[in-house]
Amino acid sequence: MRVLLTRKFRAQFLLPAGLLTVAAMASLAVFFPGGGAGASGHADASQVSTNAKQVLKACGSVNTKGVTPVPNSGNPFTSTNLICHGGNLLSYGNDSITYANPPASYIAAGRALFAQSCSSCHGNTANGTMTVGGKVEPTIGPNLQGVGAATVDFWVSSGRMPATDVKAVEAERRPSRLTPKQALELAAWVNSLDPAAPAVPFPHLKGANQSVGASLFSLNCAACHTITGAGDALAYNTNAPSLQNRQITPQQVVEAIRTGPANMPRFSGNLSDAQVRDITSYVTGRLQHPTNPGGFGLGGVGPVAEGFVALLIGVGGLALICFWIGERS
Amino acid sequence: MSDADHQPSRTRVPMPIAALSDPHMSDAARHPKRVENIIALILVVAMIFFGLAGAAYWQNWNAWTFGGALGGGLFALGFGLTAWGKYLMPQGPFVEERHVLASTPDERNAMSAALVERSAVVVRRRKVLGGLFAAGAGIFGIVAAFPLIRSLGPLPKDELDVNQWTAGSVLVDSNGRPVRRDTLVIGGIMTVYPRNQMRMEDGQVTFTDQGLATDQTVLIRLSHEPFTTMPGRETWTPDGYVAYSKVCTHLGCPVGLYEQELEVLVCPCHQSMFNVRNGAVPQFGPAPRPLPQLPLGYNDQGYLIATATYDQPLGPGFFERTT
Amino acid sequence: MTDSATRTKRSTKQAMGPYGQVSKVVDELDERFGVAKGGRIFLDKIFPDHWSFMLGEIALYSFVVLIATGIFLALFFVPSASQVIYHGAYAPLRGQRVSEAYQSTVNISFSVRGGLLIRQMHHWAADIFVGSIIVHMARIFFTGAFRKPRELNWTIGIFMLVLAVLEGFIGYSLPDDLISGTGLRIGYSIAESQPFIGSYMVSFLWGGQFPGDGSIIPRFFIIHVLIIPLVLLGLITVHLALLVRQKHTQFASEGRTEDNVVGSPMFPTFMAKTTGFLFMVTGVTALLGAFAQINPIWQFGSYEPSKISYAVQPDWYMGMLDGALRIMPSWEFAGFGHTVPLEVFLPSVLFPTLLITLWLLYPGLERRITGDHAMHNLLDRPRDRPKRTAAGVAMFTFMFTLFAASSTDVLANFFHVSLNATLWFFRIAIFVVPAIAAWVTYELCREMQGVHGIGKRKRAVIVRRSEQGEYSTVPSAPRPDDEHVEIDPEPVPVRIDIEPLGNGDGRQAEPSPTGMRQVTR
């Protein structure tokens, strides 16, 4: 009477089952952002420490724009390990984070690179103006003088700059068109125009306390990035990017916290370097590498994805089984 | 098929023979033997899965193995049994007559009569008793319900109207550190609580429940100079610091989402948007009222303090809230 | 075994009659409880075979799974809001202050063997439970199975849906994690928004102003594990008892009338199928619990009133309410020394109350509108009742639009559109989409009514070109499976006679060998 592989069976059961499976897979795929193993931020740390060894221990005046004299908050004055050379601040920081400016030898290359890739939007001297026909006019991009090396390094190394779409509300993260070294060269040149803190941070994640990091993350970061770091749409077409992206380096996390790129608030005196390091360790250690002991993580977007799975695979799948068990006329 | 074919014989016949002789009791499948083999295979698979689940549990392998084996086994067991029912059991179709549930008119009348006449007799003769009993039961109901509801919690007094911020309350962060002029740079935000709600527990700084739930406040730095959020609040923003209640006026979620370029606070729950430069007036979403603003100042030690308490109840609306 | 022993055994067996031990047990039971007649009728009960009649079973069996897994969880869960320092297995929480409820839930997930699987099964089963109730309800609605005499079962079904949703929300709140705690905060504000009673209600229930004196967790616990399950169990019993008493509905077709039920008998066919299905439902839940992570509370952390995560959504069945709250304009009434937060009260208190009332009243409303007071045991095809079908589709699209509106932020993020625009889209769509859906459904039903043989497979047409270059079409020969659709359905020749068999002298009665005497009509 009924054999499993009749045409009717195929049409009425296998086809819908197949379609449902494909739909379920597609819906699952939506919740799995592709994230491969990314570049590590630790690579440059050794390089900087060797740079640090080469410098002299004499400091001149330092521009204090954008710094706050609260201890251990990205601030050179209250930092231990202050290293200067010829009046130029080279590195400072503490056991949690070392902030270092790129070496002066990078400045020349940075100038050439800036003229080629950045000056059309930020002006020839990165001051946000351009002289057109004898008139000084503001450029599309903002003034970059006095923003500090960390800011420049963050925007360039995360691929947001040079911008691909200058009219976009926000520049989105993409694979960087410049190498990490070129990013530092640009930072070196821009910072040399009007030296400021914070310098490029190198977090020492070894002693980090992820529990403190998790707690601070839920108080300070989860309101935008969500508690699982999945990111989401914010007001007026802005976005909180996903932190689950494994391309994001610990260095970039610290840079973002300390410089407040675009609409992100800037955390200074209210988060110590140790706390920033703890948060960073939690982000790059846990959010980017969730253990997910319960199975597929469903993208960490919570009950919306769970509801889809429950209705589509749970109720839908069971209804299909009903469809098989019962009569269909 | 004639009647005679289906009339069971009067003698007792062993079940299998009778079942096979009747077309409606026969297997549904065209190749019963083949189906039987497949089902047997499925049931064996179920057994293997259950064995695996047992091993996974015993050896404490990861949850995927245990759950997968258990689920696979259960599914296979159920699938086998269902397939058995579907392909190898009598399929009929059989018919069952539906019997009318309703009684005869006479029976209904009898019931109605019993109800009406007997109660009429009772009520007519003993009206007072009936009334007294109903009153007694009613009073019991009210008296019994009263403690059940009333004992659950305290009567609301003015808790919804008040908060623990007072003139001179020092603003402290979640670690209990007071806030100074230099703590935030422009574009910074932090959550602050009144220091009078701070306490130490298990060697950690924490706050009272009300301190965390009601008094939570966001402190934002917008500029280096004071600015005016609303007329009459000119002195509330020293050094460009501004503080608003973190409790959303819509449903009480913590309004912790700040976008520094837009200068807008967003409630993460239902996306109400508050413009922080202009007195946190809602500019989008379901929130009905601005976030209440906390007037700020400095104390002798240079710590940021509240110069007065909030001028209105915090959080969502409620009936007793005077306007 | 000796020869005589064999003989004795055989003779004992013969003495017991052809049905052996079973008939002895039946005898013993029947003498005491009189089970034989009713039991026979029960074994003969006929269940319609149409697949859509099994949707309710998904709900029933996921409830069984919920009870079973819930008992396990209750052995480990600590319903207490007291704060402790976490020292358990999950490193990123160590040293944090958490509530005992949260700590015990994390411990179930990490330290109790099999605990995470059971916890996830419980949560998945809850999501499936509510979902299958709604799907089952849709079948009842669109086929008109709620009509007289089954209005009471429809009503019971609605109450069970409401209870299931409430039970789900309360259970979701118990772990006291950041996401559910936020949901509870919202629940507090919703209750608080009611005029006159609001602030009293929250103060009594929470034991004071939010977050209260910690009594909400133990109170929710007893409601979740005892009160609502008990009520649900009672309602399910009545639901099924009414179903047995009134018998199933069925679709009209040859041999299927208002006065009979056609299908498979309870024993053995239906019993095998349905028991197998119970195992399959449990199996699917276990597979989901094993491979799809749900509600990973260890990532969320313990609830603290000043912490918040973006993109917080309730479980899907509460999404409707959340969506209504999101798209509601900010109308707050203030005057006469009082405040009524209409932007909360209307969408989250009044609106669901009215909606549920409408569902409860629907069978009566339809009877009044159509003037149809007759008994109905045969089901309608949805297309034959275009107005009801259109109304139902409108209601479902309405609910779905609200559900979608609860994830405006996720949708805006996914489609890269402005959050503000998304919200405005839903404010308009909530009125437009159901109206369009209803109109399309109505027209579709009307169209389908007029078409002969709709639902049957189209037969291919062969186009031929003659030698002169003219084209002509001829229908192709029916394929083997086409016949199945096109021949008359099999006649339904037999019925089960459940009149008492036998002539009064006990064992010497004339039992049908099959237990069913089949009579050709």
Précis, in short:
With 329 residues, chain A is of the alpha+beta class. Helix content of chain A is 42%, strand content 10%. Chain B has 323 residues and is α+β, with helices and mostly antiparallel strands.
Your description of this structure?
The complex is a heterotrimer of chains A (329), B (323) and C (521). By secondary structure, chain A is of the alpha+beta class. Chain A contains eleven helices and eight strands. The radius of gyration of chain A is 25 Å and the shape is globular. Chain B contains seven helices and 14 strands. Chain B has helices at 3-6, 15-21, 32-59, 63-87, 105-125, 127-150, 209-213, and strands at 94-97, 171-172, 189-194, 198-201, 204-207, 217-221, 241-245, 257-259, 264-266, 273-275, 281-284, 293-294, 296-298, 304-306. In chain B, helix 3 runs antiparallel to helix 4 (63-87). The model of chain B is unreliable at 1-21 (pLDDT under 50). In chain B, a hairpin with a 6-residue loop joins strand 9 (264-266) and strand 10 (273-275). In chain B, the strands form four sheets. In chain B, strands 2-3-6-7-12 form a five-stranded antiparallel beta sheet, with no helix packed on it. Chain B is α+β, with helices and mostly antiparallel strands. Chain C has 521 residues and is mostly helical. Chain C is globular, with a radius of gyration of 29 Å. Chain C starts with a helix and ends with a strand. Residues 482-521 of chain C have low confidence and may be disordered. Chains in contact: A-B, A-C, B-C. Strand 1 of chain B pairs antiparallel with strand 5 (260-265) of chain C, so a sheet runs across the interface.
| Biggest sheet, spatial arrangement of strands of chain A | 1-2-3-6
Q: Give me the side-by-side strand order of the main sheet of chain C.
A: 1-5
Largest interface: B-C, 105 and 127 residues
The best one-word shape of chain A is globular
How large, in whole angstroms, is the Cα Rg of chain C? 29 Å
Described by the principal axes of the CA atoms, the overall outline of chain C is: globular
Oligomer: heterotrimer
Helices and strands of chain A, in order, run as HHEEEHHEEHHEHHEEHHH
Biggest β-sheet description of chain C: 2 strands, antiparallel
Q: Gyration radius of chain A, to the nearest Å?
A: 25 Å
Give the topology string of chain C: H per helix, E per strand: HHHEHEEHHHHHHEEHHHEEHEHHHEEHEE
Helix content of chain C: 55-70%
Measured by DSSP, the beta-strand proportion of chain A falls in: 5-15%
Uncertain runs of chain A with pLDDT below 50, 5 residues or more?
1-5, 25-63
N→C terminal distance of chain A: 15 Å
Number of strands of chain A: 8
Q: Give the strand tally of chain C.
A: 12
The N- and C-terminal alpha carbons of chain C lie at a distance of 52 Å
